[in-house]
Amino acid sequence: MWPRRLKQWIALLPLTLVVTCDAPGHEHRAPEQRPPAARAARLVPRPVILGRREWHADEKAVREKPVYSGPVEVIFVHHTTHSDKYDCKRDVPEMLRSMEEHHIHDMGWNDLGYNFVVDRCGNIYEGRRGGIDRPVRGAHTKGFNVRSAGIAVLGSFANGSKPPRAMLKAIAAIAAWKLAPGVDPQGRAKLTSTSDESRYRKGTSVELRTISGHRDGYDTDCPGAELYAALPWIRKTAARMRYDAAH
User: Fold this and answer.
1) What are the backbone dihedrals phi and psi of residue 89, each rounded to the nearest 5 degrees, phi first?
2) Quick one: pLDDT at residue 27?
3) What pLDDT does 159 receive?
4) How far apart are CA 243 and CA 247, in angstroms?
5) Closest-CA residue to 139 (of 154, 128, 123)
6) At what angle do helices 165-178 and 231-246 cross, to 10 degrees?
7) C-alpha pair distances (Å), 205 with each of 19, 92, 160, 181, 195
8) What is d(CA 31, CA 181) in angstroms, rounded to the nearest whole number?
9) Are 143 and 209 spatial neighbours (Cβ–Cβ below 8 Å)?
10) Chunked mean pLDDT (size 10), the chain, 247 residues
């Protein structure tokens, strides 16, 4: 979500204009990096993820090759500030294309900022290009895009707007699968801030919940209050998924 000083401006935007959680601003350009060759086998099966072809991503607009930042140790949950009411089949592809265009042309980023996007029906979409199974560095949480993944939900889910259970289960399923082996979805991990514009000065080592909200790393109301309040349930459910897969 945008910083608090822009909330009144955002409220005036129509649904068709894509607005998103505030992400890292200018992306640092870097050459493509290869992820570690050795990778521990994952026990949790990959959830069904609809690829970029499903929402007709504009691949020609993508500015640079993806960058990989190592195993994912923290998941950041966001909302996009769209209306919470939309048709999942009819509206979502256009919403995603508009968001991609906004991130590239208006924000100046390489591609869509989020690694994954979830709609209110629980459908999961591939966000930033680079390989669903690979640790693609996104542009979702200023200062903390390394060794993390960003999941955005289409909607706002502020006070009084409860997030659908299908959506929460989808977030938990991505987290259970995407977090590096050995990472506890109910635990904590240390990341180092790379930007003075985050909640923490550049170079500060920060202990974060392995499933955090955007507001935990940046001064914002994102994700919405009802979605943020659901994070403990998401953590617990993701941990249960990992436990069940291992037994």
Assistant:
1) -80, -40
2) 53
3) 83
4) 6
5) 128
6) 50
7) 30, 37, 35, 22, 12
8) 27
9) no
10) 42 41 48 37 86 97 94 97 94 97 95 97 98 95 95 93 96 98 96 94 96 96 96 98 94
Residue 12 corresponds to which tokens in the numbers above?
Answer: 């005036």
In single-letter form, the type of residue at position 224 comes to G
Give the global pTM.
0.85
| 8 Å CB contact between 117 and 51 | no
Handedness of CA 133, 136, 138, 142 (dihedral sign): positive
Rounded Cα gap, residues 219 and 39, in angstroms? 34
User: Whole-angstrom Cα distance, residue 56 to residue 217?
Assistant: 31
| 3-state per-residue secondary structure call for the chain | CCCHHHHHHHHCCCCCCCCCCCCCCCCCCCCCCCCCCCCCCCCCCCCCCECCCCCCCCHHHCCCCCCECCCCCEEEEEECCCCCCCCCCCCHHHHHHHHHHHHHHHCCCCCCCCCEEECCCCCEEECCCCCCCCCECCCCCCCCCCCEEEEEECCCCCCCCCCCHHHHHHHHHHHHHHCCCCCCCCCEEEEECCCCCCCCCCCCEEEEECEEEHHHCCCCCCCCHHHHHCHHHHHHHHHHHHHHHHC
pLDDT given at position 14: 40
| Cβ–Cβ under 8 Å, residues 157 and 41 | no
Compute the half-sphere exposure of residue 197: CA atoms within 13 Å on the CB side of its CA. 9
Residue 42 has what pLDDT?
A: 64
